[in-house]
Design brief:
InterPro entries: Kinase-like_dom_sf, Prot_kinase_dom, Ser/Thr_kinase_AS. It catalyses: L-seryl-[protein] + ATP = O-phospho-L-seryl-[protein] + ADP + H(+); L-threonyl-[protein] + ATP = O-phospho-L-threonyl-[protein] + ADP + H(+). One of its GO terms (molecular function) is tau-protein kinase activity. Pfam families: Pkinase. With about 350 residues, the protein is of the alpha+beta class. The protein folds into 2 domains: about 100 residues, Phosphorylase Kinase, domain 1, CATH 3.30.200; about 220 residues, Orthogonal Bundle (Transferase(Phosphotransferase), domain 1). It has 15 helices and 8 strands. The strands form 2 sheets. Strands 1-2-3-5-4 form a 5-stranded antiparallel sheet, sandwiched between helices. A hairpin with a 3-residue loop joins strand 1 and strand 2. The longest helix is centred in the first third of the chain and has 21 residues. Bound molecules: adenosine-5'-triphosphate.
């Protein structure tokens, strides 16, 4: 199709979408905030009437001090049947199952016709995590977030993934592009197209999801895998270094690199290195699980860590349920043995 004909068709489609959104109580703006393989995401506004007739939406937006939402429009008429009949329903059911957590993007409502499906989503207006990491390089000239900020963001990710798992959902496509930040800097996990309900402990999965560079080794080895264990990602490494630890497109070369283990930039704390190593174990059972991540010494904020270290030095057991000891910054966290039992330190030194 010629450029001018394409533009005319796009304009006609957009006009139809504006009307369909208006019929459902939303004012679609022309500001496109993202796009996927078969979708476009626009900024939109909820109307007063829509809020009045939709108590769930009104409750979701309460406290946000704005009426903005993100509307993801999927052209089901153009998308492959597998996408419309498998991945889209998975995405919707995963979002419904994980409603409602501060760090998981909220699905307010859906509507559809024979041409399109509309997902009305909580707006995460700032950027995705990849853009944020790249912006840090541009503004501060440093590759990666500082560890304090990385810890704050990573806590939210751990909390979001733990919530998904406890709701019976595995994400299976954890990567920086699927982690959004809202205007308050809150993390919002999104894109549940590979979300799966049956991926819990007793029913191994076999579908290859995600991108090679983010993929768990057991999936690269084409083995059946446990969806919860595979949801570990290597996002922490990307956050603090602005690089993926192993950048390869070929699964067998990725495995080769993984066997040799990651190298770290100078200046990264040993605790952080230890936690990253804990994620990058070849055997899934040797990898840190979410509870171990939450209890890892690196996850403890610096201020709390020094208090805990002081009270530990004085022989107090400490009342906080969080980790009570922290590795000294001098040695390796693993070799110092100063992480809690069961933390990555124990696993990696095993
Ligand atoms: N709730 C939201 N708030 C703000 N921006 C969003 C939101 N949801 C999606 N986006 C933007 O739209 C882009 C595409 O969305 P999403 O990843 O959900 O679509 P997709 O069709 O599943 O994409 P892909 O084909 O890459 O898997 C995102 O990368 C993001 O930039």
């Amino acid at each position: 199709m010629k450029g001018s004909a394409r533009r005319k068709l796009d304009q006609q489609n957009f006009t139809e979408q504006v009307c369909e959104c208006r019929d459902n109580g939303y004012l679609l703006s022309s500001r496109k905030i993202g796009s996927g393989a078969f979708s476009k995401v626009y900024l939109a506004y909820t109307t007063h009437e829509c809020m009045q007739h939709n108590p769930k939406l009104a409750s979701d937006l309460r406290g946000k001090h704005h009426a903005m939402v993100a509307i993801k429009i999927i052209s089901t008429a153009e998308a492959p049947v597998e996408f419309s009949q498998k991945f889209l329903p998975c995405e919707i059911s995963s979002l419904n199952a994980t409603y409602k957590h501060l760090n998981v993007v909220q699905l307010h409502e859906t509507y559809q016709n024979s041409q399109r499906s509309y997902l009305v989503l909580e707006l995460a207006a700032r950027s995705d995590l990849l853009e944020h990491i790249n912006a840090v390089l541009d503004h501060r000239g440093r590759p990666g977030l500082d560890e304090e900020e990385a810890r704050r963001v990573f806590w939210q990710l751990v909390s979001a993934v733990a919530h998904c798992h406890s709701s019976g959902i595995v994400h299976r496509d954890l990567k920086c592009e699927n982690i959004l930040l809202d205007d308050q800097g809150l993390l919002k996990l999104t894109d549940f197209g590979f979300g799966n309900r049956s991926g819990l402990r007793n029913s191994p999965l076999s579908t290859f999801c995600s991108s090679v560079a983010y993929t768990a080794p057991e999936i690269l080895m084409s083995k059946k895998y446990n969806g919860e264990q595979a949801d570990r990602g290597i996002i922490l490494s990307a956050m603090v270094t602005r690089k993926l630890p192993f950048k390869e497109h070929q699964p067998h070369r990725m495995l080769h690199l993984m066997r040799h283990g990651p190298t770290f930039r100078p200046g990264m704390s040993p605790e952080c290195q230890d936690l990253i190593r804990g994620f990058l174990q070849l055997r899934p059972r040797a990898c840190v699980d979410l509870q171990q991540v939450a209890a890892h010494c690196w996850m403890l904020p610096t201020a709390l860590a020094s208090t805990a270290a002081a009270s530990s030095a004085q022989g107090h057991s400490g009342s906080n349920a969080r980790p009570s000891r922290r590795a000294s910054s001098a040695g390796s966290a693993s070799s110092s043995g100063s992480c809690r039992p069961g933390s990555a330190a124990r696993l990696t030194s095993a």
